[in-house]
Each structure stands twice: as C-alpha cells, then as structure tokens.
Design a protein that fits this description.
With 173 residues, the protein is mainly α. It is built from six helices and no strands. The longest helix has 21 residues, at 35-55.
Amino acid sequence: WIAEHAQHPDLPQGVLSPVEDMRVFARSVTRSASLQDASRCASEMAAGCGRCHAAADVDVRVQDGTMPPAGRAPAEHMLRHAWAADRMWDGLLTPSDASWESGATALSEDPLFLADEESGTEAGVLAREIHLLGFEARRLQDPDHRAGIYGRLLGTCARCHSLMGITEGSATH
C-alpha cells in the first residue's frame, strides 16, 4: 500500500523527505530478489516511518505487553524472540530508544537453548547469530544504524525458519 499510494497532500513540509524515503524502500521491498534484500528494505522503510514521526513530533504509542516467561523449550524461546523482535520493530517505527533497547536486551540475554548435538548445526549457528545481533543492537547508540541490524535480524530469523520448515501460521507466535 505504501509503495503504490501517493503521499497525503496535507503532510507538513518537514516530513516529505522521510515519507519519500519510506515509499522508496517500500517499492524496493516489492522488487527485492532475495529475502535478505527485502528484510533490509523493510527495516529501512520502518526507520523512515520513525523519522517521519519524529519530524512531525507525533508520539506513537505501542502496546508492548509483557515478555513471555523464560523456559528451555524451543517454543518458549521463539515466543521471547518474537516479542524481542517486535520491540525492536517498534523502536524503529515509533521511534523509541526504550522499545529498541528492551528488544535488543531480550535477544542478547536469552540465547536459544540447544542440545549439545544441535549446537554445531546450521540452526545452531543461526541461533548464535541471533543472540550476537542482540548484543550488537544493544551496544548501538546511533538510531540511524538500527535498520541495518534489524534487517540482518529479519533475514537470519527467516533463514532459520526456512531451515526448520516453519511457515506462516505454523509458528508458535
């Protein structure tokens, strides 16, 4: 919708640039040849939303809910990781340092539990990569670079979900 529809004619002058950035990245998502590229463009689009909200001095409220409880089962970890990714998305979109930091902290503090025999598998490598991206996101102070990390996060999650045969509607979140 964002890619195909014109800007609202009553937008204030100060938001035109972020809105156009958002539209350019939305169009790029629709033309992406790879999941990695689509993930990067979608993240940049969300950051454009956040820049527009900041330029317009709009306070966007999101309901972050409570982080799901910790557990050792993969489904419990996936619920927590989904919650964390949602908080980071909110951090880009609204924009909100607090949302970004709560999601990044959750990912950095809650690595996926893997049995010893799974730790060297491709899924194990991807699980560690997600955890490390949480650390990287947590250390990142410049909001202008958050979309790049989030794009990498989305791409890594998608690769793991594909590897594990998780499709839309079959995931636990």
